[in-house]
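Lecture notes, unit on protein representations.

Consider one protein chain, 285 amino acids long.
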Amino acid sequence: MSIEKTNSNYIVACLDILGYQNLVNNTHSVDDIDKIKNAFEETLNVVKKMSEELINESDSVFRKANKDIFKKVSFRLISDTFLISMPLDNCDFSDTKIQQYFNVKERIESHIISFLAIVTIIYYRLSMNEDFGYFMRGGISVGEHCEYPLPSIGSVHNTFLFSKTFIECYDLAENKAKYIRVLVSDKFLDFVGNLSMFENIIFYDKEGLRCLNIYSFLAKKSLGNTQILGGIKNNLLKRIGENRTKPYILEKYRYFVEYHNQKLSEQIQSGETQYKDYLIDITKI
């Protein structure tokens, strides 16, 4: 396969782990490392399970479509960076019945919506995990991205990665996000045309920047939501406590707590009063 055939249009997400250096420095045993590895494995297993139910769990067509989309998504953890990517040049489905159900535009939209939902699941599952519980800033964009399989050595699968879009996402995460949020690039907006299809998944934050709505899962009423929010709240309070003497880091957590409280308040106002227990007193940060 030539490089030209693999350097195509992808949607790419880059998540940068905040506090990764502390995570590494405070990990002293094989058991500790194993817990962190298990947190990532558990997260990807949850993604795999939930990918079949992302759009409409009662409709077998959508379940099969999402399962097909999941197979196209790549996951890589490189030091403190989680890289997630999916090709967009071919959004066809393997099942001809599913293929006929969507027009071309709908196929692309369904791929993007499922991709964003997968990124969201990865984010909140890692943030709520008792053995990991770190938060992330990130970027999402669309553009040229090359993933090329290299010869395997033993049981190890090697990949050549060359990507302008990864650099753009990394720049969004490292230099523009600043706070705990995942920014969406202008290229993404240019590609999709408008955000009407992504109303619950993408929002404008208090600075007027387009961000991924990590709490979009709240739109789906589930008993598991309180478990997720409980884990996130506990880990937020833990990280805030660890950084009491670092105001520049506390500022990042304050931003996320404001977002956390805003999204929960919206749900509480709509009648979901069980979320009151997960609000955080921002005056104590």
